[in-house]
Design a protein that fits this description.
With about 160 residues, the protein is of the alpha/beta class. The chain has one domain: L-asparaginase, N-terminal domain (Rossmann fold, 3-Layer(aba) Sandwich), CATH 3.40.50. About 25% of the residues lie in helices and about 30% in strands. The chain has four helices and ten strands. The chain has helices at about 30-40, 60-70, 85-95, 115-130, and strands at about 5-10, 15, 25, 45-50, 75-80, 100-105, 135-140, 140-145, 150, 155-160. The strands form three sheets. Strands 4-1-5-6-7-8 form a six-stranded mixed sheet, sandwiched between helices. A two-stranded antiparallel sheet has the order 2-3. Strand 6, helix 4 and strand 7 form a beta-alpha-beta unit. Helix 2 packs across helix 3 (about 85-95). The longest helix has 14 residues, at about 115-130. The termini are far apart. InterPro entries: Asp/glu_Ase-like_sf (IPR036152), Asparaginase/glutaminase-like (IPR006034), L-asparaginase_N (IPR027474), L-asparaginase_N_sf (IPR037152).
Length: about 160
Amino acid sequence: MESLCIVTTGGTIDKIYFDDKSDYQVGEPQIGRILQELGVAFRFDVVPVLRKDSLHITDADRELVRETIAAQPSRHVLVTHGTDSMVQTARVLESLTDRTIVLTGALNPARFRGSDAEFNIGTAVGAVQCLPPGVYIAMNGRIWNPGKVRKNVDANRFEALE
Protein backbone atom coordinates (compact mmCIF):
# COMPACT_ATOMS: atom_id res chain seq x y z
CA MET A 1 0.00 0.00 0.00
CA GLU A 2 1.29 3.42 -0.93
CA SER A 3 0.37 6.18 1.51
CA LEU A 4 -3.08 5.70 3.05
CA CYS A 5 -5.45 8.60 2.40
CA ILE A 6 -7.70 9.31 5.39
CA VAL A 7 -10.71 11.53 4.77
CA THR A 8 -12.45 12.83 7.89
CA THR A 9 -16.05 14.02 8.11
CA GLY A 10 -16.57 14.37 11.86
CA GLY A 11 -19.03 12.20 13.74
CA THR A 12 -18.91 10.78 17.23
CA ILE A 13 -15.31 9.64 16.83
CA ASP A 14 -14.22 13.31 16.94
CA LYS A 15 -16.77 14.67 19.42
CA ILE A 16 -15.80 16.64 22.51
CA TYR A 17 -18.41 16.68 25.28
CA PHE A 18 -18.64 19.52 27.74
CA ASP A 19 -21.28 18.36 30.22
CA ASP A 20 -22.28 14.70 30.50
CA LYS A 21 -22.98 14.10 26.81
CA SER A 22 -25.52 16.89 26.44
CA ASP A 23 -23.42 19.73 25.01
CA TYR A 24 -20.78 18.79 22.44
CA GLN A 25 -18.94 19.96 19.38
CA VAL A 26 -17.13 17.99 16.70
CA GLY A 27 -13.45 18.65 17.34
CA GLU A 28 -10.23 18.10 15.40
CA PRO A 29 -9.89 14.73 13.66
CA GLN A 30 -8.55 12.17 16.14
CA ILE A 31 -7.35 9.50 13.74
CA GLY A 32 -3.91 11.01 13.03
CA ARG A 33 -3.12 11.18 16.74
CA ILE A 34 -4.39 7.63 17.27
CA LEU A 35 -2.29 6.20 14.45
CA GLN A 36 0.83 8.10 15.60
CA GLU A 37 0.39 6.85 19.18
CA LEU A 38 0.03 3.29 17.89
CA GLY A 39 3.26 3.65 15.89
CA VAL A 40 1.86 2.39 12.58
CA ALA A 41 4.38 1.30 9.95
CA PHE A 42 2.84 3.05 6.95
CA ARG A 43 2.54 6.59 5.67
CA PHE A 44 -0.80 8.35 5.84
CA ASP A 45 -2.29 11.71 4.99
CA VAL A 46 -5.32 13.12 6.80
CA VAL A 47 -7.67 15.18 4.63
CA PRO A 48 -10.32 16.90 6.78
CA VAL A 49 -13.45 17.57 4.70
CA LEU A 50 -16.27 18.09 7.21
CA ARG A 51 -16.77 18.49 10.94
CA LYS A 52 -20.36 17.37 11.30
CA ASP A 53 -22.52 14.97 13.18
CA SER A 54 -23.59 12.54 10.47
CA LEU A 55 -27.25 13.38 11.05
CA HIS A 56 -26.41 16.81 9.60
CA ILE A 57 -24.52 15.58 6.52
CA THR A 58 -26.37 16.59 3.35
CA ASP A 59 -26.36 15.16 -0.17
CA ALA A 60 -24.10 18.07 -1.17
CA ASP A 61 -21.69 17.11 1.65
CA ARG A 62 -21.66 13.50 0.41
CA GLU A 63 -20.84 14.71 -3.09
CA LEU A 64 -18.00 16.83 -1.64
CA VAL A 65 -16.60 13.72 0.09
CA ARG A 66 -16.86 11.77 -3.18
CA GLU A 67 -15.15 14.54 -5.16
CA THR A 68 -12.40 14.84 -2.54
CA ILE A 69 -11.66 11.12 -2.70
CA ALA A 70 -11.74 11.13 -6.51
CA ALA A 71 -9.12 13.91 -6.52
CA GLN A 72 -6.67 11.96 -4.31
CA PRO A 73 -3.89 9.89 -5.91
CA SER A 74 -4.20 7.10 -3.34
CA ARG A 75 -6.07 3.91 -4.26
CA HIS A 76 -6.55 3.08 -0.55
CA VAL A 77 -8.89 5.41 1.34
CA LEU A 78 -10.18 5.27 4.91
CA VAL A 79 -13.10 7.57 5.76
CA THR A 80 -14.01 8.45 9.34
CA HIS A 81 -17.71 9.18 9.53
CA GLY A 82 -20.57 9.38 11.99
CA THR A 83 -22.47 6.13 12.27
CA ASP A 84 -26.02 7.42 11.78
CA SER A 85 -25.65 8.14 8.05
CA MET A 86 -22.49 6.18 7.22
CA VAL A 87 -24.39 3.74 5.00
CA GLN A 88 -25.86 6.56 2.89
CA THR A 89 -22.43 8.09 2.29
CA ALA A 90 -20.95 4.68 1.46
CA ARG A 91 -23.62 4.19 -1.20
CA VAL A 92 -22.65 7.53 -2.83
CA LEU A 93 -18.98 6.47 -2.88
CA GLU A 94 -19.76 3.25 -4.75
CA SER A 95 -19.36 5.16 -8.02
CA LEU A 96 -15.58 5.28 -7.32
CA THR A 97 -14.83 1.81 -8.62
CA ASP A 98 -11.04 2.09 -8.97
CA ARG A 99 -10.15 2.21 -5.25
CA THR A 100 -10.66 0.45 -1.97
CA ILE A 101 -12.64 2.68 0.38
CA VAL A 102 -13.45 1.71 3.97
CA LEU A 103 -15.69 3.84 6.18
CA THR A 104 -15.47 3.58 9.94
CA GLY A 105 -16.47 5.54 13.00
CA ALA A 106 -17.23 5.08 16.65
CA LEU A 107 -20.23 4.68 18.88
CA ASN A 108 -18.33 6.52 21.64
CA PRO A 109 -15.91 9.46 21.18
CA ALA A 110 -12.23 8.53 20.73
CA ARG A 111 -11.41 10.72 23.73
CA PHE A 112 -13.52 8.51 26.02
CA ARG A 113 -11.98 5.62 27.90
CA GLY A 114 -13.35 2.38 26.52
CA SER A 115 -14.24 3.91 23.15
CA ASP A 116 -14.54 1.54 20.21
CA ALA A 117 -12.68 4.08 18.03
CA GLU A 118 -9.23 2.44 18.10
CA PHE A 119 -10.65 -1.03 17.48
CA ASN A 120 -12.75 0.17 14.53
CA ILE A 121 -9.84 2.12 13.07
CA GLY A 122 -7.58 -0.94 13.36
CA THR A 123 -10.19 -3.10 11.65
CA ALA A 124 -10.56 -0.51 8.87
CA VAL A 125 -6.80 -0.18 8.35
CA GLY A 126 -6.45 -3.95 7.96
CA ALA A 127 -9.44 -4.10 5.63
CA VAL A 128 -8.36 -1.25 3.35
CA GLN A 129 -5.04 -3.03 2.73
CA CYS A 130 -6.53 -6.46 2.01
CA LEU A 131 -9.82 -5.97 0.20
CA PRO A 132 -10.29 -5.60 -3.56
CA PRO A 133 -11.52 -2.27 -4.94
CA GLY A 134 -14.96 -1.40 -3.64
CA VAL A 135 -16.66 0.38 -0.73
CA TYR A 136 -16.94 -1.24 2.70
CA ILE A 137 -17.97 -0.38 6.26
CA ALA A 138 -15.81 -1.52 9.18
CA MET A 139 -17.78 -1.51 12.45
CA ASN A 140 -18.21 -3.83 15.43
CA GLY A 141 -15.32 -6.07 14.37
CA ARG A 142 -16.84 -6.86 10.98
CA ILE A 143 -16.54 -5.72 7.39
CA TRP A 144 -19.91 -4.92 5.85
CA ASN A 145 -21.23 -4.42 2.34
CA PRO A 146 -23.02 -1.04 2.50
CA GLY A 147 -26.01 -2.47 0.64
CA LYS A 148 -26.48 -5.23 3.22
CA VAL A 149 -26.10 -3.47 6.56
CA ARG A 150 -27.91 -0.98 8.75
CA LYS A 151 -27.31 0.69 12.07
CA ASN A 152 -29.61 -0.66 14.75
CA VAL A 153 -30.06 2.51 16.79
CA ASP A 154 -31.77 0.74 19.71
CA ALA A 155 -29.00 -1.85 20.07
CA ASN A 156 -26.31 0.73 19.15
CA ARG A 157 -24.55 -1.57 16.68
CA PHE A 158 -24.45 -2.47 13.01
CA GLU A 159 -26.28 -5.55 11.76
CA ALA A 160 -27.09 -7.33 8.52
CA LEU A 161 -30.26 -6.34 6.70
CA GLU A 162 -32.85 -9.07 6.82
